[in-house]
Amino acid sequence: MKASDKSRVIATCAYRSCPWRVRASLCPDGHSFEVRKVYSTHSCPGVNRAGNKQATISWVANEIKDVVKKNPDITPKDISNNLETTYGLSLPYMKIWRSRELARDIMFGSVDENYMWVPTLRLELLNRNPGSHITYMCDKKSNAFQRMFVSFKVCIEGFIVGCRYLIGVDACHLKSKYLGVLLSANCLDANNGLYTLAYAVAEAESKKSWEWFMRNLSESFGCEVPHLAFISDMEKGLGEAIKLIFPNAEHRVCMRHLWKNIKKLFRCEDGHILRNLVWTAANTYKLNDFHMKIEEIYKINPQIYNYLGSLSCKWSKATFSKYIKNHYNTNNMSESFNAWVEEARSKPVVDLVDMIRAMLMEQRSQRKQNSSTWKGLLVPHVEDYIRDITTRKEQFIIRLSTSVRAEVEGLNERHEVDIEKKECTCGLWQLSGLPCIHGAAFIGTTQNNLWHSYVDDHYYTYRYVT
């Protein structure tokens, strides 16, 4: 306060060089004051830098709740920018952080209270989805929530009837107050769409949590699934869990993560030749070619050769089971799931579980509606594939051995094709269940070129819509 008496009030900014100033004089009524002069622009850092006492946490939370509702993960920095633009406020970081947490509680309910609704949610989901496998686990000592597993009966039935049996398993981090991880099991349907079998919230990624997840997944199936395969990113404890719960299942490792691990362990960032050899060995369908590339790797780097030989999981297409009818060696399905549920990962456990449930049901409904318009015997993805391989410009020479066997020679390769057994020495047909380009060249010369008869029945429309 610069000056004050019965007839006037003069106030200036506490910051010495700031020009802000206001002058008020007593009005004729003898009670009121009227502002006569004001210079309203501050050039100082501002008194709000220390935190405006009137801008309490509850007031800020109420002001930002709509913004937090639209974007629960908004950063304190972005909130600070909004407050400074709108109100000229510049508040301490922790005050803004606490305000954001309070705003989340106002809009979505308390995170702590959210855990209390887990038993209720489980019962409600089971009532709506009879026969589903939904369970949760609490800490034996503190009785605090620890894990929750969800697998809907309709999803498992769809997997058993209409999907190829390669399951991608993965974990991603949650972003709510108590963090934790989201475990998931996904596969691809006949039309190469993401298909989720199960998901779970757990306290951390460990051998115990993975074993618990895989055991519940096994119980969800309700029967032994023949010729089952898993693909993963070499998560901690997952390999042991798969071997324990599914001892007869094939375990593949995602090649992208395997190569990343090789670079980290052996410091071969600039190993362009080595990288090409490893990836070529991973993507070949023929065992002879695979062994040739492995020997070349040994000559360049025996350590990597020994490392690859020590892996308990499979990483080359040449070694994959022919019964799965899926030749993929990357875990893209899990990456797609993690990106798909990005928004849900910031929610408290009950909201997260129910939000993913709603997304799955909406996805299922949309796909059922789309598939009702399909007219062909094969799913659209396979029809597009066949159209592609039959319209390529490659030239092949077909030398018949019998009516169902032939030698197919291209510019740089020669293969034996048996269209009755659905086999080609290139290996693709047996592994994927889809005719390779050599098989397609032979089929195109026969009188019986009904393409669906050369495709594995996992790709038939009737299995997709069942």
UniProtKB/TrEMBL annotation:
Spell out the InterPro entries in the cross-references.
MULE_transposase_dom (IPR018289), Transposase_MuDR (IPR004332), Znf_PMZ (IPR006564), Znf_SWIM (IPR007527)
Q: Which keywords has UniProt assigned to this entry?
A: Metal-binding, Zinc, Zinc-finger
The answer to whether the entry has keyword Transport is no
Write down the superkingdom of origin: Eukaryota
* SMART domains, A to Z: ZnF_PMZ
List the Pfam families hit by this protein, alphabetically: DBD_Tnp_Mut, MULE, SWIM
Q: Where is the SWIM-type domain?
A: 415-447
User: What GO molecular functions are on record for this protein?
Assistant: zinc ion binding
The protein in question is named: SWIM-type domain-containing protein
Organism expressing this protein natively: Dendrobium catenatum
